[in-house]
Write a structure and sequence with these properties.
The complex is a heterodimer of chains A (197) and B (542). Chain A is α+β, with helices and mostly antiparallel strands. Chain A has helices at 4-32, 45-69, 72-77, and strands spanning 86-93, 96-99, 104-107, 112-118, 123-128, 134-140, 146-150, 156-161, 174-182. The longest helix of chain A has 29 residues, at 4-32. The relative contact order of chain A is 0.14. Chain B is mostly helical and 542 residues long. Helices cover 72% and strands 0% of the residues of chain B. Chain B is built from 17 helices and no strands. Chain B has helices spanning 3-9, 22-53, 61-96, 103-125, 148-177, 188-196, 198-204, 216-250, 262-297, 304-318, 334-365, 373-395, 398-404, 408-438, 447-473, 488-523, 538-541. The two termini of chain B are 32 Å apart. The chains are: A alpha+beta (197), B mainly alpha (542). At the A-B interface, helix 1, helix 2, helix 3, strand 5 and strand 6 of A face helix 3, helix 9, helix 11, helix 12 and helix 13 of B. The complex binds protoporphyrin IX containing FE. Protoporphyrin IX containing FE binds next to helix 2, helix 3, helix 14 and helix 16 of chain B.
Chain lengths: 197, 542
């Protein structure tokens, strides 16, 4: 099962290649535009309309691609109809997070729901590995439903950090070693207990 | 001539004050203040950059976040709005060959936007008011963290900016529609319809097409101006709401947990804010590209009609994409996330992609062109959006947003590349283009400095955005402080690139000051000696 490390590594590669092409294209254009004209290729209507179609396909195609290849998208869109194996309640107040159970013990492949409630400000709920790479996040908005359904596919220990600014006092709201996942065949080598690295 | 004498009097005679029209002076007043505010935003940016490398003794968290609150406001309102308003208040009458509706209103606009920015900035500097520009409810009314007086000063500053913005919008539309003294009656309604794109829209369904009464750049300016006006309404409404809470708190009534639904507020606020990001920026920028491309080549725009239609689509799109800012809000409906957040947002790839294509083909058809400053910066601006728009489309995806939202990717690869490379380089291109027109032919002091400005800015802008983006991919949050050097390599590299941006700014500033002279700069704030509402003096027009 793909996790955020896989998806983000793909992003780095694909966007890096794209950025290189875009920069090269403009540099080449900048050179060419100072030289006399030999053809008018870009002005051909067929090329123009092909380009428009490509933009439309890429723009919308990305969403179909991630729906079919990134595991958390269908879970997120269908979470109302998926039964949660465990629900963890997290309450935010006065820049503190409190947990219905700590650490939150998660079995491999279970559908767990992190149900966050804020009693005052807007905060964020982010799950991180010991090397600070992000597993997932959501906003925690007061008077609103903030429930993230997640399925872990690797053993590991994760920390929680508020991912939304809630004033200077909330700059470093962290709960170390808050989620412990067990029972998988594979370990998340980046997600070790903090203090035990 | 000695350096000091050039500094005081300008290069080759500097700015010839006596021949300047009031409109030229007004345009310069806006632009000069806008450029100085850009410098302030850049210095604030560098202060934050330093903290992101290592804790700085005189910048604690309260100070850091008050810088972060005013930095984008100074950048967007103090700098971008000022430069854009000055340029467009000059260009609309200039292109329509018609006097501006009101010089007084134009003067009031720069004073209000410039003064309002200063007051808003003081709220951060003096009172450490720091709810950030997004003002997520109820943070701006959290008086256990912020002083009420700080909030009031902030709202007053922003309100003045918005009043200046309304006056600008009114002046633009009035200029398009009114009948100047001694002219034949102008078809106001038809001009209005053409300006906002209504004529273009109805033309799609008509066999006999109605002629466009306003040029494409003026149409782009009008459409962007609508978004600017709508945005001002939303921000004013939020300001009034905040004032109610602030005065309530000042008189001992704590309203903090009453009334306002935080998610609904967030929807409305982002609807308004997005009119700047997706409305003002994309529409104004596309319009400016078209204007510059036609001015640089002296040729007609390629696919004019498509460009007009795309601008209209972009305006409607800009009213319906706000949900891409709420993809990680679980209370937001899935329909809005997918429809507004993903699908409508994808249209921006098409509209902006079209604008890039049309501009490039227009330039290419006029080959060979001389690589002037305006052309160089225009290409930089195009590249900025070629990089930043796809980055935005990527984060406006449910799968990607879950792991990118509120990371440095958003604010680096998307926001700063769009603003610093895309928008700012387009504005610099417009400034280099307009400089001889608004100064009656002042000669640039140093081409070498202009070239250095270009390279330092483009390398610094793309570099800073990229290193922030890479840190974001590795999990670094925006709006957070890290004290154990977790992302030091990226942050040091981003800091070096930020330094290049600052150097670029100083190279530009020095070049402009040496071109027009300190005397010239101060002089633009004195009344014009010629009494005319025309844009340029009669002899230049001839
Ligand atoms: C040399 C130029 C600049 C530098 C070095 C710089 C640097 C920074 C830094 C370090 C941050 C904080 C990122 C974080 O940790 O969340 C930031 C945030 C931001 N900057 Fe800039 N910046 C520059 C210019 C600008 C300009 C000109 C604008 C606008 C026109 C702008 C708009 C923003 C915005 C919107 C934010 C986000 C603030 C928030 O999250 O509330 N920046 N900038």
């Amino acid at each position: 099962m793909a996790d955020s490390i896989d998806v983000l590594a793909t992003l780095k590669l694909v966007y890096g290649i794209y950025a290189f092409i875009a920069i090269s294209l403009i540099s080449w254009f900048g050179y060419r535009v100072t030289k006399p004209k030999d053809d008018d290729a870009g002005a051909k209507p067929a090329l123009f309309w092909t380009y428009v179609v490509v933009l439309a396909v890429v723009g919308t195609g990305l969403h179909f691609l991630t729906y079919n290849s990134v595991p958390w998208v269908p879970i997120d869109l269908n979470r109302a109809s998926i039964k949660a194996d465990t629900v963890f309640d997290i309450t935010y107040e006065d820049h503190q997070m409190s947990f219905s159970s700590f650490p939150m013990q998660v079995g491999c492949g279970e559908h767990v729901v992190f149900n966050a409630t804020s009693n005052d400000l807007t905060y964020g709920f982010g799950i991180f590995r010991a090397d600070h790479t992000m597993v997932a996040q959501m906003q925690v908005v007061p008077q609103s439903r903030n429930d993230l359904m997640w399925k872990f596919g690797k053993n590991g220990t994760y920390y929680i950090r508020s991912t939304e600014y809630s004033g200077p006092r909330g700059a470093k709201m962290v709960a170390q070693n808050a989620i412990v996942v067990t029972g998988c065949d594979q370990d998340d080598v980046r997600a070790v207990e903090i203090g035990e690295q | 001539m000695s350096l000091i004498s050039t500094l005081i009097n300008g290069h080759e005679g500097g700015l010839k004050q006596d021949g300047m029209t009031p409109m030229q002076k007004i345009a310069l007043r806006f632009v000069v203040l806008g450029v100085l505010y850009y410098g302030l935003a850049a210095i604030e940016g560098m202060m934050m950059r330093m903290v992101e490398i290592t804790p700085v003794p005189f910048i604690d968290d309260a100070h850091f976040f008050s810088i972060m609150t005013v930095h984008p406001m100074v950048g967007i309102f103090g700098s971008t709005y000022m430069i854009v308003f000055g340029a467009f208040l000059f260009l609309v009458p200039f292109l329509m060959k018609k006097p501006i509706f009101s010089l007084k209103l134009a003067n009031a606009s720069w004073m209000l936007v410039g003064g309002g920015t200063l007051i808003m900035w003081l709220a951060g500097f003096v009172f450490s008011y720091a709810p950030l520009y997004t003002l997520y409810w109820p943070l701006p009314a959290d008086f256990s963290q912020f002083a009420i007086i700080g909030g009031i000063v902030y709202v007053v500053g922003v309100a003045l900016i918005m009043v200046g913005t309304f006056l600008y919008s009114y002046n633009i539309f009035k200029t398009i529609m009114y009948t100047p003294e001694g002219w034949d009656k102008q078809p106001s309604m038809e001009l209005f319809k053409s300006a906002i794109g209504f004529t273009g829209l109805t033309n799609f369904f008509k066999k006999k097409k109605t002629e466009h009464l306003v040029d494409l750049p003026v149409a782009a300016i009008s459409r962007g101006t609508i978004d600017v006006g709508l945005n001002a309404v939303v921000i004013m409404a939020a300001g009034v709401l905040l004032l109610i809470y602030m005065f309530g708190a000042a008189f001992g009534f704590n309203l903090e947990k009453t009334w306002v639904d935080a998610l609904l507020y967030k929807n409305m606020f982002w609807w308004g804010l997005d009119l700047i990001a997706d409305g003002l920026v994309l529409i104004f920028v596309a319009g400016t590209w078209y204007l510059l491309a036609t001015a640089i080549t002296g040729k007609k725009l390629f696919m004019q009609n498509i460009a007009r239609a795309a601008l209209f689509v972009e305006m409607v799109v800009s009213w319906t994409v706000w949900s891409h800012h709420l993809m990680s809000d679980q209370g937001q409906s899935n329909f809005l996330k997918v429809f507004s957040g993903e699908m409508v947002t994808a249209l921006e790839l098409i509209t902006q992609g079209l604008a890039v294509y049309i501009t490039l083909v227009t330039l290419s058809r006029a080959r060979p062109l001389k690589m002037t400053n305006e052309l160089k910066f225009l290409l930089g601006g195009l590249l900025g959006f070629m990089l930043a728009v796809p980055a935005g489309i990527i984060q406006a995806d449910l799968g990607m947003n879950r792991i990118l939202h509120n990371t440095q990717w958003i604010i680096g690869s998307h926001v700063h590349v769009a603003i610093l490379v895309g928008l700012t380089m387009t504005l610099y291109s417009a400034i280099y283009f307009l400089l001889p027109i608004v100064t009656n032919g002042a000669k640039l002091y140093s081409q070498k400095l202009a070239t250095a400005h270009f390279w330092l800015h483009i390398v610094g802008g793309i570099g800073m955005g990229s290193f922030m983006g890479m840190a974001g991919i590795d999990g670094m949050l925006r709006r957070s402080t890290y004290i154990d050097g977790e992302y030091n390599t990226y942050m040091i590299l981003a800091g070096i690139c930020g330094g290049l941006l600052l150097l670029a700014f100083f190279a530009f500033l020095f070049n402009v000051v040496m071109t027009v002279g300190v005397k010239g700069l101060i002089g633009i704030y004195s009344p014009a000696k010629i009494n005319t509402r025309e844009c340029v003096p009669a002899q230049q027009e001839a």
